[in-house]
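User
Here is a favour to ask of a fellow structure person. I am asking you to supply a protein in sequence and structure-token form. Please set it down just below, with no commentary around it:

Assistant
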Amino acid sequence: MDRLHSHLPPNLPPPRRHSRPTRPVILETERLRLVPLGPEHAVDLWSVYSDPEVARYVGGESLTPESTREQTERWARAWDERGHSQSAVIWRETGELLGRIGLSFWPEWNETELGYALSRAAQGRGIAQEGARAWIDWATTNLADDHLIAVINPHNTPSTRLAERLGFTPDRPETVRDVEVVIHRLTFPR
């Protein structure tokens, strides 16, 4: 065991190491630019969340302009601490913010989630799959983890179908904020 972790009791694994990019992760696809999501995006993200159909599976009525700002502040801190987090999904052609796609660390499970929420106008056009695929490709190469998870409400059929198209498979049930969800898992080919 290395000196850094020699103070841990023998039955606890050392904390996971994450590679930290030396510059912000900006991913580009044919149609999208994925940039670090922060408080400067809170107003535009709230306009996405303010649609009840969009918010239904990502926080519902708990989402407010203030909670959206707090979310973006947490994601900005995660970018600083972990070197990855949620990205603002920008439509390259117009510069419009369509929603968010990116990674979130769940300390209670010691796992990293690929999550997304897009405006209703952006749904059904392959945008979530395009942005999620870019993040999967990045994570496969850059994370120390051997997998990603997707936390999905079992009633959210479109997200379940997208997870399956991306290669995720159902792994286990969990309860998150009193809501039953299914954790889907994508193991990296290594």
